[in-house]
Specification:
This protein is mainly β. The chain has 10 helices and 56 strands. The radius of gyration is 28 Å and the shape is globular.
Length: 747
């Protein structure tokens, strides 16, 4: 557990309980508030408490909640600055509780990643102690790399096995209800972040969910053409509403809980009596799929959005269309209405939101900022803010008074399909194709922080041979060069017209070679900071690139199913390697430069002889797409990563699989190997970076980011790791405690 925790564990249980438990409230009530402050900013105390079987993270959160105790606030020893520090640590506990429940060793990494932003003595002292923690190997952030407490991601809710398509929140803000492509709904306790119950009954994807004002019922809509009414007090289905001839895509419920309005791919809306379970009437008028519906607070109007690009306003008292709003240039996916019923906000595949005046029946203004379709929109109860979710993987918060974007929330690795806001307007809950829900803090703190990285997905990263620089490539079309010692950006390389998918560095560290969706490779001079030349020949996106140890050749892999070998001296293509039946996603070169190993979406790896330009053999064992490959420095082993959530270690001499590495819970996107060949580093869609001991096949350290890890590289020192994720972050990490761990003979 750690030196301090081990010493504590050797004490009598009564001592442990006194130290970790009962003394804290006593410090507050008996006047020893300073001791209370000191204890809760002591990293060793935090680690011991979350690791102790009788306490854990919930008990630690209870300790921190005492900071707001009225007795503490009025106490003579009350220190506002220290109280602020404790509040920040408490918020980190909320943000990372789910991570620590799975892996206690990530306490230090999460604290450092989130608290290094703050220049508060009580905060800065704790990470300094955390840095010295050597009980087990762990990955230490070298720079602030995770969302800090104050605004942003609060927690991630995991449990669905497929895309989260819908989310609703109860009026008291305590529960969330989600609908998924796994055909289920889940009820979540938003205070603890725990799943309460799963609702099963739909035979196809759940597209929509609404909850009644009293929080006792949920209504869901599905691709099975039905709606189901659920009793949330007992977690059971009450009855099913049938009548639509195609998928139910959206649902809303009136404030009195007596009626539901559904929108369907049969181009209609239906109004249902939730008392009798009968259809009241059908609303016809849209000429294409109806994808969104909202209802006014007084229950008199419904507002719908459709693939016919229009919004229609319906009078629910007579079941007739009132008027149509036209100005979107593509499908309307989302619609919300303000509490006063005067405004509607729509989101569209034209990448915009529009705010409509329902009194004048005209558009007020357009909100622009998303780079892809807007799939979800919600509005705060006071009508001052709109929150939108998009297939650009982000959530944006808009000020409807100033008509400006306030800020963007990043963290989802795939499309944001749904978003809901708690009644107090302080939190948003989003659902995404990445199978998760995320809870966001919408409060605006005074301190603003910029996290290091790109403006979009980081696809690739490489490290120079001297370990001084890292080069990252992104979907934002740029490469960035970083000082690996400080984590500071040195300069940006621009020239590609599409996403940068791959990057490699020549052994002398003077050149970088990038591959792009624009079908080209570019060779960059890192000294002059300019493009040297462009290599053209692939007929589709370039996904991978590697350089031979002598720096004379580059090998690229492409979506056109081929690899190409390039002479970097003559700037010409030497030959093309053909054999894969699907995209080439990754490529590695053996240390002698004689072989290339490629990974493909055809579920195989191929080993190529670069001296004659021919395939040697194929490695088959992964059950799904192979997305990553690396080779050890002695050229004996190749390590591959796959969408089957595993890594496999291959003996290139016997052409056999040695063993499989299992610990990731989602697709493996990248793998790298240390120079001594003893450890592998992998990144996955489960948001983690893992360090593996290749002699035992065990995970020895793990770090949880906030989005899918798309790429990583290891410096020559074997302990400095650079990684990039789907939100654009670049992580600089150091493997700590490995020497002590090896000395104990634990690896």
């Amino acid at each position: 557990m750690g030196e301090f925790a081990d010493k504590l564990a050797a004490k009598p249980l009564s001592y442990q309980r006194a130290y970790l438990g009962s003394l804290l409230p006593n410090h507050v009530k008996s006047g020893h508030l300073e001791k209370y402050y000191q204890r809760l900013t002591d990293f060793n105390f935090l680690m011991a408490k979350i690791q102790h079987p009788e306490f854990g993270v919930p008990a630690l959160i209870d300790d921190f909640n005492l900071v707001d105790d009225s007795e503490a606030v009025t106490h003579p020893e009350y220190n506002p600055e220290t109280a602020k520090a404790l509040n920040l640590i408490l918020r980190v506990l909320w943000m990372s509780a789910d991570i620590w429940e799975q892996d206690k060793t990530q306490l230090a990494g999460q604290l450092l990643g989130r608290l290094l932003h703050f220049n508060i003595p009580a905060i800065q002292a704790m990470p300094e102690v955390a840095k010295q923690w050597k009980a087990e190997p762990w990955l230490r952030p070298l720079i602030p790399c995770l969302t800090p407490p104050g605004r942003g991601l609060l927690r991630t809710l995991e449990g669905h096995s497929n895309s989260v398509n819908a989310v609703a929140v109860t009026a008291d803000g305590k529960r969330g209800i989600s609908g998924s492509s796994d055909n289920t709904l889940k009820i979540w306790d938003l205070t603890t972040g725990k799943e309460e119950v799963t609702l099963k009954g739909h035979s196809h994807w759940v597209n929509a969910v609404a909850v009644t004002e009293d929080g006792k019922r949920a209504i869901s809509g599905s691709w099975d053409n039905t709606l189901k009414v659920w009793d949330l007090t007992i977690g059971k289905e009450e009855f099913t509403l049938t009548g639509h001839s195609n998928s139910v895509y959206a649902v809303a419920v009136t404030a009195d809980g007596k009626r539901a309005i559904s929108a369907s791919f049969d181009n209609t809306l239906k109004v249902w009596d939730l008392t009798t379970g009968k259809e009241l009437f059908t609303l016809k008028g849209h000429s294409d799929f109806v994808k969104a519906v909202a209802v006014s607070a007084d229950g008199k109007r419904a507002i719908s959005g459709s693939s016919d690009t229009t919004i229609k306003v319906w009078d629910l008292t007579i079941g007739k269309e009132e008027f149509t709003l036209k100005d979107h240039s593509n499908s309307v996916y989302a619609v919300a209405v303000t509490a006063d019923g005067k405004r509607a906000i729509s989101g569209s595949a034209d990448n915009t939101l529009k705010v409509w005046d329902l009194t004048t029946r005209k558009e007020e203004f357009t909100l622009k900022g998303h780079s892809n379709s807007v799939y979800a929109v919600s509005v705060t109860v006071d009508g001052k803010r709109a929150i939108s979710g998009s297939s650009d993987n982000t959530i944006k918060v808009w000020d409807l008074t100033t008509r400006k974007e306030e800020f963007t929330l990043k963290g989802h690795s795939k499309w944001v399909n749904a978003v809901a806001v708690t009644p107090d307007g302080k939190r948003a809950i989003s659902g995404s194709r990445d199978k998760t829900l995320k809870v966001w803090d919408l409060t605006t703190g005074n301190e603003q922080f910029t996290l290091k990285g790109h403006s979009y997905l980081v696809n690739a990263v490489a490290v120079t041979a001297d370990g001084k620089q890292a080069i990252s490539g992104s979907r934002d079309k740029t490469l960035k060069v970083w000082d690996l010692t400080t984590g500071k950006q040195e300069f940006t390389l621009k020239g590609h017209s599409y996403s940068v998918n791959a990057v490699a560095v020549t052994p002398d560290g003077k050149r970088a070679i990038s591959g792009s969706r624009d079908k080209t490779l570019k060779v960059w001079d890192l000294t002059t900071r300019k493009e040297d030349f462009t290599l053209k020949g692939h007929s589709y996106s370039v996904n991978a690139v590697a350089v031979t140890p002598d720096g004379k050749r580059a090998i690229s892999g492409s979506r056109d199913k081929t690899l190409k070998v390039w002479d970097l001296t003559t700037r010409k293509e030497e030959f093309t390697l053909k054999g894969h039946s699907d995209w080439v996603k990754a490529v590695a070169v053996t240390p002698d430069g004689k072989r290339a190993i490629s990974a493909s979406l055809d579920n195989t790896l191929k080993v190529w002889d670069l001296t004659i330009g021919k395939e040697e053999f194929t490695l088959e064992a992964h059950g799904q797409l192979v997305t990553a490959v690396a080779v050890t420095a002695d050229g004996k082993w190749a390590i591959s990563g796959s969408w089957d959530n595993t890594l496999k270690v291959w003996d290139l001499r016997t052409r056999n699989e040695e063993f499989t590495l299992k610990d990731h819970s989602d697709s493996v996107n990248i793998v790298a190997v240390t120079a001594d060949g003893k450890r592998a580093i992998s990144g996955s869609d489960d948001n983690t970076i893992k360090v593996w001991d290749l002699s035992s096949g065990n995970v020895i350290a793990s770090f949880r980011g906030e989005s899918s890890i798309a790429c990583c590289a290891i410096a020559p020192d074997g302990v400095t790791i650079v990684a990039g994720d789907a939100s654009g972050r670049v992580y600089f990490l150091r493997l700590e405690g490995i020497t002590e761990y090896l000395e104990k003979g634990m690896v």
